Amino acid sequence: MARIKLKDIRHAYTANPASDADYALKRVDHVFEDGGAYALLGPSGCGKTTLLNIISGLLRPSEGAILFDSQDVTDLATEERNIAQVFQFPVVYDTMTVYDNLAFPLRNRGVPEDEVARRVREVIAMLGLEGQARRRARGLTSDEKQKISLGRGLVRADVNAILFDEPLTVIDPHLKWQLRTQLKELHHRFGHTMVYVTHDQTEALTFADTVVVMYEGEVVQFGTPEELFERPSHTFVGYFIGSPGMNLLPARVEGRTAHLGSQTIELPGAPGALGAKRLELGIRPEFVRLGREGMPVSIRKVEDIGRKKIVHVELEGENIAAVIDEDLEVPAEPRVSFDPAHLSLYADSWRVEMEARP
Ligand code: ADP
Ligand code: MG
């Protein structure tokens, strides 16, 4: 197992990249600690697969270096990096049995047959493939084939890391939940460094200790699920994580006072110089209070979501979502206020630290 360091990585698929826009990865500089469970989360096209392939060695980055512990592996081929990678679609040998497919990565490395049998049986049991072990892969469903692909990623004990690229895409929803739970258990048991790519926030937040949120070729936040919720570094994290996402409201700021149209809001501290940047206040729907105090709003829509309800209101021409308890009555002349401890300020989409009040 290894600690993986990505040092000033940039990648362009075009020959002569001129500006940031030409880079599929603009700059990635992060460390994946040995034994950590990481998720790479972001929308389609943001660079997740590119980054994963750079870690595994399928792709050589245009700039920067990759280190496994202290060894520079930038110029090493995939096989030399000792990594297991599971792809979005099944990679199986159709003419081999399920058992032989799973044994292949071990036999390939000269693992003794009794050890092969032990590992393969363990993986077969974990994936619930006992009934199919002696069948050829050809006749299996795509769910079953993808389970074999997963199993091939998990069968070796000695890998530096296991990389998963949206591995549950073709798996049906119930099984998806089950496999994700098993991966998590496996991580606890064997402590492999795992990097799991997904565009699904639930999948990322349940699997990973650290979530790497990517947006347009950049890592916009590298943090725990709590950090992504409490202190989104970038407006993209604010609205991508959470359901509904963070409310973002265009604002003007003077000293410690933010102006939303004709309304004023006291900030928790004084932001530094903001120049001519585009400013937005960010507040998660969970921290919008709806009652008789605060700024007057009009109700747009109320959605019942079980024990909570989402109330959509309009404030100064902006839509705001508030998540409140189901049994809380919405007053006839509703007003909103924001929990100051959970108020964020963004300048050109990036979070601004506010100096705490003395
Ligand atoms: P994700 O996995 O997050 O969906 P990718 O890493 O596949 O994103 O792609 C990132 C960007 O790089 C996209 O704009 C995509 O079109 C581009 N891209 C990916 N692979 C190639 C390639 N082989 N050649 C050229 N452009 C590519
Ligand atoms: Mg991808």
Report on this structure:
The structure is a single chain. The protein is of the alpha+beta class and 358 residues long. The protein folds into two domains: 4-236, P-loop containing nucleotide triphosphate hydrolases (Rossmann fold), CATH 3.40.50.300; 243-355, Nucleic acid-binding proteins (OB fold (Dihydrolipoamide Acetyltransferase, E2P), Beta Barrel). Helices cover 25% and strands 34% of the residues. The chain contains nine helices and 25 strands. The chain has helices at residues 48-56, 78-81, 98-107, 113-127, 142-154, 173-190, 201-207, 225-230, 235-240, and strands at residues 4-11, 25-32, 37-41, 63-68, 71-72, 83-86, 161-165, 194-198, 210-215, 218-223, 247-250, 252-254, 257-260, 263-266, 269-271, 279-283, 288-291, 295-296, 298-304, 308-315, 318-325, 335-338, 343-347, 350-352, 354-356. It has a six-stranded mixed beta sheet with strand order 6-7-8-3-9-10, sandwiched between helices. α3 (98-107) packs across α4 (113-127). The longest helix has 18 residues, at 173-190. The chain is globular and about 75 Å long. Adenosine-5'-diphosphate (ADP) binds next to α1. Belongs to the ABC transporter superfamily. Pfam families: ABC_tran, OB_MalK. InterPro entries: AAA+_ATPase (IPR003593), ABC_transporter-like_ATP-bd (IPR003439), ABC_transpr_FbpC (IPR015853), ABC_transpr_MalK/UgpC-like (IPR047641), Mo/tungstate-bd_C_term_dom (IPR008995), NA-bd_OB-fold (IPR012340), OB_MalK-like (IPR040582), P-loop_NTPase (IPR027417). GO terms for molecular function: ATP binding.
